[in-house]
Amino acid sequence: MNSPMYSHSIPVLQQMLTALQAILASAEAHAKAKSIEPAALLQARLFPDMFPLLKQVQIAADFARGIAARLAGVPVPASEGKEQSFADLAALLDQTLAFLAGLDAAQFEGSETRSIVLRPGTPKEKTLTGQVYLSQYGLPQFFFHVTTVYALLRHNGVEIGKRDYMGAY
To answer: Using 50, 70 and 90 to split pLDDT, how confident is the model at 1?
Structure first.
């Protein structure tokens, strides 16, 4: 039996992370073809108070690992966040996809009612059920950062479109 929590999280995260890999490869090719310093894209922001593209990718990967781990009841894999290049981001996404692929649907059984504690031990601590965590917090956060990467690249002239954003489904 395939857990609905598994099927509503892992395949979605895999689809979007794989699409993110492809649009980052397009961005790297664009920079090379147009003689643009890669850092110009990696440090691009939509507004000065927003994180740059590099950090947006790191956060998207963090959310993917965090969502999957919390729902599967396993420790969230740590990431140092030291990526500085397109190659580093590709490796981060490969590692994240490998982690997701290593999870079994059975680990997600009953996770819809599992208590997920956000920011434990802080004044902002909040406890959600797994269902609420996935649908109202985790996935919206993940999609925000993936979408921001897409918007940054389009804004900077990378020729990608909705099909690239969506990936294969």
So the answer is: low
Alpha helices in 34-114, H assignment, sequence order? 38-42, 53-72, 86-101
Please report, as a single letter, which amino acid is at residue 148. T
Percentage of residues in the chain having pLDDT higher than 90? 95
Mean of pLDDT values over 89-104: 98
List Cα–Cα distances, 23 to 18, 71, 125, 147, in angstroms: 9, 28, 35, 11
In the chain, the domains with their CATH numbers are 4-166 (1.20.120.450)
**Amino acid in position 103:** L
Burial tier of 83 (Cβ tally within 10 Å: 0-12, 13-18, 19+): buried
The string over 138-162, giving b where at least 16 C-beta atoms fall within 10 Å of a residue's C-beta and e elsewhere, is: bbebbeebbebbbebbeebebebee
Least Cα distance to 56 among 71, 48, 73, 44 occurs for 44
Quick check: 167 and 149 in contact, CB under 8 A? no
Instruction: Determine the pLDDT at residue 42.
Output: 98
